[in-house]
Amino acid sequence: MKKLLFLLPLLFVQISFPQEAVHIKKERLMKRVEYLASPELQGRLAGSEYYNTAAKFGANEFKKAGLKPFGDEDYFQYLNIEYNQILPDDKFSVIRSNGSVRKCEIGKDYIYRGFSGSGNITAPVVFCGYGISDSLYDDFKSVDVNGKVAMVFKYQPKWNIENKGWKNGNPREKARVAFQHGAVGILFVSFPNDEKPQLPIGSVISGSGEQNLNFPELHVDIPIADEILKGSSFTLKDLQTKIDLTKNPFSLSTKNKVKIKVETDYAKEKRTMNVVGLLEGKDDRLNNEYIIIGAHLDHVGGQGGKIYFPGANDNASGSAAVMEIAHAFAEGKIENKRSIIFVLFTCEEQGLYGAKYLANHLPVKQEQVVAMMNMDCVGYGDSIQIGNGKSAPQLWRIAKQIDANNDKMMIETTWNGGGADAGPFHNKGIPAIYFVTTNSYEHLHQLTDKPETLNKSLYQQITKLAFLTVKKVAEGKYKREPVLK
Fold first, then answer.
1. What average pLDDT score do residues 264-284 get?
2. What is the dihedral of CA 426, 432, 438, 440, to 10 degrees?
3. In a domain? residue 482
4. Does residue 403 form part of some domain?
């Protein structure tokens, strides 16, 4: 009996979170998410006044947590990005061959691509398959799209010809090809043959090259595409099936027109900022070694003054978690030996530009950074996944051991090669891991990515795990490991 009494306290210590972890507060996490995902911030589009307000909020949270400013100017590290905003008073409708009109609803029937151009057009629609035009496969070869709107699949084929890989097929490239053939606008459609076809989503991914200021780009829902195809004797599903089976183009003119009216506010360069704060190490020997813990603050904004994308999971959750971890270090009075850089990245949604900028303009020497940890989409799902563990196995094992001694919510699956905002640091040779929940993307870039959809208990658990992982590395026992490719 004495032996049993002796073992019980040890067991309790092993399975329970350290006392400092109680400073990770579910209520505070959710309160920050609710603000970041609120109508007041309109989806936090990088470069917008709404994102700037979110960045000021993040900087103030860092200040309250006792972090020192570590940007170019106070907490802000500035960079310039390409910017585009869909202005109010847009219209999109289908004009049937009999003259009747179906007015479409933004956010339900269609969504503009983030880098849509302006336009006020009424034109016939031509279905152009995958929107590809090259020497081996040409969706435009047998149809005339001059002065018309091209309707194309949003993504490239899942097959190829003569083992030839397709170009990346980003929206700007597909729009450019259609424009070069004389089109005046483009409608992107999802694959109807997918098990769960993608709904129209908000996205600011565009691709390289110059913006076409006068070329509207929309993502329309499959029922709208079928409405446009009425009278052709084909559905969108029929057309994808036929093209994929034969691996040959099958383009056609539809019997219907569309009316598109949209105005945009475009800037080739607009200033935005990362938010960067520093918690100095308490050890004279190790305080010149640094850990970076970060999450992207931006999302994809709003459109037409009618809808906005809340981005609660993506990535208000990660940003609020980074803020909470900063507060936990302060409230726990933790004697971190290494210094910790806390960062809220801008412009992840457009191409990881904030993370790339920080990785290329570190405020310390690159070799002084012993680890980078990223948090992205950590509020929705059913378990915890730590990415890039094959490239930074020691960091991954630290997180795995902490989880094994506590909530046991982490799965074994991982990957190599970075991922999201961890990628630019991995590419620089900095060991990095990526905190994310599994089955996290049901509401990705949709109007439904709201705070009430989050798994609050899981969200608190993954934030605790990230906090304790940073804390462990900050103690100094982990030695920077070589990055495995």
1. 97
2. -70
3. no
4. yes
Q: For 56-90, what is each residue's pLDDT tens digit?
A: 999 999 999 999 999 999 999 999 999 999 999 99
Residue 383 is part of a domain; what is its CATH number? 3.40.630.10
Are 254 and 292 members of one domain?
A: no
Examine the domain organization and report whether 74 and 111 are in the same domain: no
CA–CA dist 417, 303 (Å, integer): 34
Query: Given pLDDT bands bounded at 50, 70 and 90, which one contains residue 164?
Result: confident
Q: What are the CA-CA distances from residue 421 to residues 174, 335, 427 (Å)?
A: 26, 28, 11
pTM (global) more than 0.85: yes
Is 282 inside any structural domain?
yes
Are 278 and 326 within 8 A, CB to CB? no
Tell me: do 307 and 456 sit in the same domain.
Answer: yes
User: Phi/psi of residue 153, each to 5°?
Assistant: -65, 140
- List the domain range (segments joined by +) for residue 42: 17-83+267-474
Going by pLDDT thresholds of 50, 70 and 90, the confidence category of residue 19 is: low
Tell me if 251 sits within 8 A of 142, measured CB to CB.
yes
Q: Domain check: are 298 and 240 in the same one? A: no
Report residue 138 as tokens: 């040409």
Q: What is the CATH number of the domain that holds 214?
A: 3.50.30.30
pLDDT of residue 18: 67
Number of domains in the chain: 2
